[in-house]
Design a protein that fits this description.
The protein is an alpha/beta fold and 333 residues long. It has a domain at 2-175 and 199-230 and 291-307: Rossmann fold, CATH 3.40.50. Helix content is 44%, strand content 16%. It has helices at residues 11-20, 53-59, 80-100, 138-155, 178-187, 204-217, 233-244, 255-272, 280-287, 296-302, 309-329, and strands spanning 2-6, 26-31, 44-47, 65-68, 105-109, 160-165, 167-169, 194-195, 198-203, 222-226, 229-232, 252-253. The strands form three sheets. Strands 3-2-1-4-5-6-10 form a seven-stranded parallel sheet, with helices on both faces. It has a three-stranded mixed sheet with strand order 7-9-11. A two-stranded parallel sheet has the order 8-12. β4, α3 (80-100) and β5 form a beta-alpha-beta unit. α1 crosses α6, α2 (53-59) crosses α3 (80-100) and α8 (255-272) runs antiparallel to α9 (280-287). The protein is globular, with a radius of gyration of 19 Å. It starts with a strand and ends with a helix.
């Protein structure tokens, strides 16, 4: 039996294919351009693009289960057309390919950002609606619209489960994701200041375990929030400092000040062709992040649990240290 993973070279994808190889006789990865993170894993690599329906159909041939992870993550650098093409049309192509190929099960990776988090004083669960208003960032709206494409597939008989992780951190972040980059900047003592805010952080390994439990146990058409622990940026930096011995920044920038300078930081990043950490969208996410994101349903129905936050920090620091060491002696981690 064969399982297909789209977006397999990403942070979650590479963690997932590693774990799937212990359960499935054949793991196939649909990869657009960069297969390096998967080069040392015993899987079948298929070149393709979720924006090309024909290539997705070819990848789905003789596949029983599809995990759809391929997507564009954005904190403000992308325009709507890019996000629409990948996160909406790409998801529609995966749904259509699963239907035409008689795939038995689709596990769709959405995001907490697809869900309305206000009012902030009431816990978020799976009953919250998807974002629709144009007041939400492009990324949030694109992930919500991608979920709607999956819902259309469910209406046509596709056996699907949707998962919505919160802010993902952890080992195997070969491409230095947005959160991974921020983590490294803190770990290396390169941030001059912190921002007064926080997120609900979840370990990438817990997200993958939750997704696999959902594939195995979840009723068709169900949806699960996979959350972890709400921790402030300041508290995260303090834990990293305790472990590494590198002092964390003393200045915590007020949200109003960080938000006011974010447009200038975005312009400078475009000029220098660098990815900014602080943008208007990321500041909005910090301001509007609900502190109570419940994974009670996933725990009750799937047996999902989130490991201690400090364990995630320790393991992530250890993975980055081993990865850095392997670059010096010619090994690939």
């Amino acid at each position: 039996m064969t399982v297909l993973v789209t977006g397999a070279s990403g942070h979650v994808g590479v963690t997932l294919v590693k774990m799937l190889t212990s359960r499935w006789s054949s793991v196939r990865a649909l990869i657009h351009d960069n297969s390096f993170p998967c080069d040392k894993i015993n899987i079948e690599v298929v070149k393709g693009d979720v924006c090309d329906l024909d290539s997705v159909i070819r990848a789905c041939k003789n596949v029983e289960v599809v995990y759809h992870l391929a997507g564009r993550i954005s904190i403000g650098a992308d325009n709507w057309a890019t996000l629409e093409q990948i996160n909406i049309i790409g998801t529609r192509n995966v749904v259509d390919a699963c239907l035409s190929s008689s795939v038995s099960r689709l596990v769709h990776f959405s995001s907490i950002h697809a869900i309305v988090q206000e009012p902030l004083d009431i816990p978020v669960d799976e009953s919250r609606p998807l974002v629709k208003s144009k007041h939400y960032p492009y990324y949030d709206r694109s992930k919500a619209a991608g979920e709607e494409e999956v819902r259309k597939g469910i209406e046509h008989g596709l056996n699907t489960v949707i998962i919505n992780p919160t802010a993902i951190i952890g080992p195997n972040d070969f491409g230095s994701s947005y959160f991974g980059k921020a983590f490294l900047e803190m770990a290396n003592g390169n941030l001059p200041a912190l921002v007064n805010g926080g997120f609900d952080w979840v370990d990438v390994r817990d997200v993958v375990e939750g997704a696999m439990l959902a594939e195995e146990k979840a009723p068709p058409g169900s949806k699960y929030l996979l959350s972890g622990h709400w921790v402030t940026i300041k508290d995260m930096a303090s834990i990293i400092s305790e472990i590494t011995g590198i002092p964390c920044p003393r200045f915590v920038c007020p949200m109003w000040l960080a938000s006011s300078v974010a447009p200038a930081i975005e312009k400078l990043a475009r000029f220098t062709n660098r990815r900014p950490l602080f943008t208007r969208d990321s500041m909005r996410a910090l301001r509007t992040c609900n502190h109570q994101i419940s994974h009670e349903k996933a725990t009750r129905e799937l047996g999902y649990n989130a490991r201690p936050f400090r364990e995630t920090i320790e393991d992530t620091l250890r993975w980055y240290a081993e990865k850095k060491s392997s670059q010096f002696d010619g090994r690939q981690n």
